[in-house]
Each structure stands twice: as C-alpha cells, then as structure tokens.
Amino acid sequence: MVLCMPVLAIAQSTTSSANTRTTTETTSEAQITRIDTSVVLVAGVPVVVDNPYGDVRLRFGGYEHGIDAHAVVQQPPGASVIAMQPAMVDGQYRIAPRLPEGSRLADGQRLDLVIFVAEGHPVIARTEQGLIESRGIRADISLNSISGDMAIRGTQGSIQARTGSGSIEASLGPAPAGSTQTLATGTGTIILAVDDTLDAHLEMSTSAAFATEFSLQVERIPGQEPNKKAIAVIGEDQATIIVESRRGEIRLLRWSEFTSTDGKPVDDRKVESDSD
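The structure corresponding to this sequence follows.
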C-alpha cells in the first residue's frame, strides 16, 4: 500500500519550513499511521482544523509561534487513503484531512488529531461526530460540530462553541471584558463550572431544567422553544455569555462542585495550564 504523505503548501510570509515525521505499524485489523508535523508561524496567524473523520484535541503549545500537529490514522485494508493536506489558505494555516473525491469512509477508518497551539494564535476547529476538546488555549477559539461532544478548559480568550446534538462541558475563567461568548447545542446537556471571578452575566435558555446554586431570574415563554430563559450575574457585569440548549439540561456549577460527565471530579484550576 502506498502511504499518502502530507502535502505542505508554505507561504514564506507566514510560515517557515515544516518538519514532518511518519511512522507506520500494521495490526490484523488495520494499518496505524502516525504523522507528526511542526510548523513555525508568524505571530497571530489563525489555525483552522477541519476534521470530518474523528476527534480534535487542542492543547497549549507554549510561547514560540507555531503549532505541533499529531495525527493517528486507522487505515483498514483496501480503504482509500486520507491525506492530511496542511496548507496556508487566505492567511490561515489550515489542517483539513480529506479522502479522495468520490471516496467514502470505510468501516473502522478514522483520523484523530492532537494540535499544540502557541499563545496568540486563534483557533477554529470543526468535526462531524468527533469530540472537540480544548485545554489551555491562550487565544480566541471557535468550535463547531454536527453532533460531537465538546470539553473546554482554561481558555484565555473568547469562546464560541456550537454543536448540533452533542453535550458541552466548560470551565470558565474571567471573561474578557466587553466580550460576547456563546455555548450552544440543539439537544445536548451543557455543564458550566465558574466562580465569582467570572465577571459576566449569563443569558441561558432551554426547554429542559436549570440546575444551579447561583441566583437566577427565570422567565417562562409558553409556546416557544426554548420555553424558559434565565439570567445570572456572577461577579461584575463586564461581559455576556449566551448559553442555549433547546432540549437539554443546563447546569451552572461552582468550581468546587464541578464533576465531569464521566464522573471524575475536577478539583482545581491546574487544568488551565495543562498541556498533556
């Protein structure tokens, strides 16, 4: 089988040369290929990760401008090869894996990405069914998925997160003053962990239940979906956070009470700088 190596399109004004390493092992069920790529970027260049074939995990990558991308590809026998295709496009560094035109994803075939992003590089990430997890990113993030779950920790920037039917878990630090952030899902549950340093008001809406120990002003809207709205002001009112699930529960918790949906407690803010 011929392996498809990443095709690197480098614009000298925004990147330097990329270093790529590929390793492959074969099991009885699939060929496992690992592709590791490091690229130096000019300060502030946005990073776009568009992966329709699996999960995307974002991690804080330090202070030297650039990214380290790690892909794991599961390739069943006879399946078409997924190409990584990193490139500079319209001033953005894009990682958009794709099958050849006309090909379909085979049973058992997937590609998962872990991207280490340096401080100051905004990130746009998209999946179809795959998880999007962001930990410690020090820039604005925009996350979109058709039905994947989302987990967000330690962001130092504005958050825009939308999924069609997945759940959203987020632990939020102080909101950037003057910002409007959004966390929205069609039918999934939203769990937020905050404390009194948030300095924002939350505009929440759902047709399911609100669960919180914070003070809420709840308004019922009969005949509409969502059919309830709630306002909470936590700390100073210096920013806006919109939280919406048409049919899922919204839980607004204090840090000390936050337990993720897998049942594991989050005990402190060490997750904010964790890049594991």
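Confidence is low (pLDDT under 50) at residues 1-13, 265-276.
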